[in-house]
Specification:
Helices cover about 35% and strands about 20% of the residues. With about 280 residues, the protein is of the alpha/beta class. The protein has two domains: about 100 residues, 60s Ribosomal Protein L30, Chain: A, CATH 3.30.1330; about 170 residues, 3-Layer(aba) Sandwich (Alpha/beta knot), CATH 3.40.1280.10. The longest helix has 15 residues. The two termini are about 40 Å apart.
Length: about 280
């Protein structure tokens, strides 16, 4: 890493960091903080630029990270605390940020690996929720996650921070068409299970009383075979177009008066139910 010293917030590299952080360059990802950059190094991410402050070396962990970064072929910048505050998105920056190449995986590449547990994020809008779902999916040993079109970018700074680096390790396919996902699931005999709040039994709400019965309790569904779990917006669950593609709809019971669960919490419940049914053993 070749290092230059930057003291001005108007430096072109500083502006570049801010542009990538804001999502202005889709081929690149903004990372901030020791943990995320350690994860990026461990996954073999391609680093383009690194910015760090002199304070990074004040801790043993920070010094070790900087030593590792010095061996990476990329552009480096020693910046002042004020410049780092302009680069960073957090209130208390840890003194290091990086621009890395965005992981890119085709839909066919993901399905070529014969996945047996996938998550489909259907038009989610909250980056924190999506990042948490990615983190949980990795923890529950899912094979990958797919976002449909109009879903928030899983590699924006808030999503990737919420994923705690999981987005750099778990295969993530973005902006996929629902029809393309469904076609590949059918071809590989992967059942699509959609999460949706169970409709109340009221004629003014239901066009068909059988609709309520078609939404099964999540623990009553066999998740031992290859499945793709579809999670959608909190209030409504997955969209009607995704529900039509699903092989089965499930709901998570809630106390009376509670309208919906946080989508990240719902995804965690479904993922760990799949893990439980499969008899997965976890360390610790």
């Amino acid at each position: 890493m070749l290092v230059e010293k930057i003291t001005s917030r108007q430096n072109p590299l500083v502006k570049r960091f801010r542009r990538v952080r804001a999502g202005g360059e889709r081929p690149h990802v903004f990372l901030e903080g020791i943990r995320l950059i350690e994860d990026a190094l461990a996954t073999g991410a391609r680093f383009e630029s690194v910015a760090f402050t002199g304070e990074l070396q004040s801790s043993e962990r920070g010094a070790l990270l900087l030593d590792a970064l010095r061996r990476v072929q990329c552009r480096g910048a020693l910046v002042s605390k004020q410049v780092m505050e302009a680069i960073a998105d957090t209130r208390a920056p840890q003194g290091v940020a990086a621009i890395v190449s965005r992981p890119y995986i085709e839909l066919d590449d993901l399905f070529a690996g014969s996945p047996d547990l996938l998550v489909i994020a259907d038009e989610l809008q909250d980056p924190g929720n999506l990042g948490t779902i990615i983190r949980t999916a990795e923890a529950a040993r899912a094979n990958g996650l797919i976002t449909t079109r109009y879903t928030v970018d899983p590699f924006n700074d808030k999503s990737i921070r919420a994923s705690m680096g999981s987005a750099l390790r778990l295969p993530v396919v973005t902006d996929a068409k629902r029809s393309d996902i469904a076609e590949r699931c059918r071809d590989r005999k992967i059942r699509m299970i959609g999460s949706r709040p169970k409709p109340p039994r009221a004629p003014c709400v239901l066009e068909d009383a059988a609709q309520a019965e078609s939404v099964r309790l999540y623990t009553d569904v066999d998740m031992t075979e290859p499945i793709a779990l579809i999670v959608g917006r909190e209030a409504t669950g997955i969209l009607s177009s995704s529900a039509e593609e699903a092989d089965e709809l499930v709901h998570i019971p809630m106390a009376e008066g509670v309208e919906s669960l946080n989508v990240a919490a719902a995804a965690a419940i479904l993922l760990y139910e799949a893990a439980r049914q499969r008899g997965m053993r976890f360390k610790g």
